[in-house]
Model the fold of this input.
Amino acid sequence: MVEDFFKIIFAFIIVFLFFYNFFRLTPHAIIIGIYPYIIGIALSFGSIFIVLLFSNNNIVLLICNSLLSFILLFTLFTAFQIFRNSIPINGYQLKRSEYMDKLMGITKYNELKKIQLSTMQKSISTLIENNTGIPITSNNKVSLLSVGNKYIDEIIEEFSKAKDHIHVEFFIIRDDDIGNKFKDILIQKAREGVKVRLVFDGLGSRKLSKTFKNKLLKNNVEIGIFNSTIHSILKGKLNNRDHRKIIIVDGKKTFIGGFNIGNEYLDRDENIGEWNDMHVKVEGEVVNWAQKIFLADWFYITGEAIVDSRYFPENNVEAITPIQMITSGFDTHWNEISQLYFSLISNAQHKVYIATPYLILNDSIIKALQTAALRGVDVKIVLPQKPDVFIVGWANASFYETLLKAKVRIFLHEDGFIHSKIVITDNQIVSIGSANLNTRSLFLDYEVNAVIYHEDASRQVEDIFTTYLEKSKELEYNSFKKLTPIEKLKLWIGGLIAPFA
Done:
């Protein structure tokens, strides 16, 4: 028994040394991709070791040894898959790049026009174009949608007017009142001869019933499921989700933002209360880029390379609102949206206002926020008082003290849930989209934001941000000096799960 005990201690030391060096030497994207697997595997190993330590039953020992062998093989398989997927120029990325080159040739007019931009706006737009290949567009018209009912009504109205196609992509679609209303209008348009394609995430929409999906399929709505749970495990991509929210109608209008499709987004969930979110409806040149993003995702899921000019009609919007799309994903070069947020914070001269449901930060974003606040920039962050998952609230809170100490102002919204993903910088630039300020959005999931370079739009979003502040309580740095041992334990646990929250 003593000999077995020392074997187990030795095994733990070897595993610790391996992962210590693995984390130090491996690129960050691979670390956070494999982190949840490591925790699960470590817990499994620990449980089995305890059983081995205290059991003399030969059958139990045989089962435990078999489980250990299986876990070891699964660990090696998962590590290989995640490493392979994390390489920016992998097989899929090469195919996607070739496909995107074909899509670039379809656009019939020059999207690059002379736009008067400030120095900061030019630097951000250049960063995005160099990172993603997506240029800034000028002729656009923007409408802000921050109320769930209005958002759904706008979608239904635009769907009802569709003549050629409807492309839809969401992380979550619920089989509830709103979900069925959404399904019915898609079926109606498909019956009218409109081409309807629907993408949703296999894990985010895992509760969607077969009846719901079959009814869509039977009525000529094409469905693309982004990595089902089993498929994700086999590909080593369980931790990489399609978190984008995109709607394109006839290639002329697009919706981008934070809303999904479900009752809670219209304040119909009593446990959540009022839902605060943000979407934009855009007409104009930038719709071409939303279309290319959707079609690239459709290509990833189905293998169908759609190259047809019908999806890129000429837009005749005369209004000037400079907008640029930005995407990011686990297997891209630069963690593009992370760099965007870092640059928006670092370039601010007067104020940075952020609304996000999750505040799980890497070192660079922490330094950017601290440095901005310490040099006199008005940095305000609004989060929900009551998170949707309690342990994520602990993870959020684990970052509060280090930010408050640097004079970053943090507000907890007390009336419902904040789900908006907003960054406003100096009333010159506002970013609205699907990407939260957390590890998942910035390093793991596939995201899309609209970056608007327009003072009026920035001020409109700031007005909504101000309504969040009015229903929020500001945190005080001194309060963290009075935390109980239990509260400190919660923050420690929150910090432990931060790499995949």
Notes: The first strand starts at residue 137 and ends at 145. The longest helix spans residues 58-86. Residues 146 and 278 are 5 Å apart (CA to CA). Residues 92-116+140-320 form a domain with the Endonuclease; Chain A fold (CATH 3.30.870.10).
